[in-house]
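Example 3.2
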Amino acid sequence: MTGLLILPEWLIVSALQPTKRGWGVRIVADRIAEVGPNEILVENYPHDEVLRAEEQALSPGFVNTHTHLYGVLAHGIPLTRAPEGFWPFLLDFWWPLVEDRIDIPMLKAAVEWQCQLMLRSGITTFYDCLEAPNSLPGCLEAEAQVVARHGLRAILSFEATQRVSPENGQLGLQENYSFTNNRSPGGLLQGLICYHTTFTCSAEFIRQAFELGGKLGCLVHMHVSEGTYEPEQALKEFGLRPVQFYDRLGVLGQGMLASQCVQLNPTEVALLAEKGVRVSHMPLSNCEVGGGIAPVPQMAAAGVTLGLGSDSYIDNFFEVMRGAFLIHKANGLDPRLMPASLVYYLATEGGARALDLEKIGRIDVGWKADLQLIDADFPTPAGEWNLYDQLILYRNPEHVRMVMVDGRILLQNGQLKTNFDPQARRALHVQAERLWQAAR
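Structure, written as tokens:
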């Protein structure tokens, strides 16, 4: 079988390994068939198609471990005054003016735009968490139709919550269960079970979510201690902090995907590591809501499985990496914290491991061909010692030259090759105006 040779100047096998200059890959169908020096690949496979990528770096595609794709509709929403804290952000703004008003037309317009944006940013895989209680049922299938047209790898879920009503909470869990159960194992689109938090869901509801996750063999996702409100509320109601409360419920473990994890104490960090909990870190959105700065260096040192997410606040994934690279240095008063190679790992293979995805996030034989080419013509010379720093600090979506998912090129020479809607921006404006009416 003939294949495709991609011959870059630089190859990133895994961000925890040194980069390789003058190495490339051979792609056959949806897999990486061979990795080696460019000249050897050309010599061994003279009949293969060749994609030469001088002054470019071939990298695993980025894995965005936490998005709220509908959130783009709220960018720039008119507000008379900003929320005064995390709880007012939810109670006075996000729930009544955004999430409770999202319907299917709004959702589809947001997902269409965000898929295009993610591809341009080098993202090949993402996990989306939808909370739109008045869009039930059928919202995940509507979202999936748009994502499938673009060819991205995605895990979709609905953030079930009892804050509207017990009945609505059950509709949310059923939405997750039905969607996940109807997906083909190993396909581009998957699902998982998702609920909101300890302060919008009862202990019985949380146990039910984990029971459903166990039946399906999938992860269960929730937000954990995004601000000070949840740990304070948990101490008041349960006498325990959230991670400790989950441990008492018997659900803390490898089947848990916890996002945010900002306001943690050292005991909780140790518990996450001990139980094998997966964590998604959103450095920029944590700043936006005033939630704080997550103890990510401490979690990494403890061995917690970590990934990076945009939270659909700033979806330029290079900016997300810059946030993770810089914020913790400032917070810890230590420029050695969060080295570039670790940040790049969290954005690729680490993120895939956080989402429990196999053979994703690394350029190695037998792994999925989810790749990107990034312009590596930097202002100063690149070398094995600085390539990760150069990519994180000095690249942006306009430098992404090619994106491949499952062996299929979706973006080439900076141009989308998928069936994207050219009227996506106009449609998003129309739906955003509909949403904003309640805020005016």
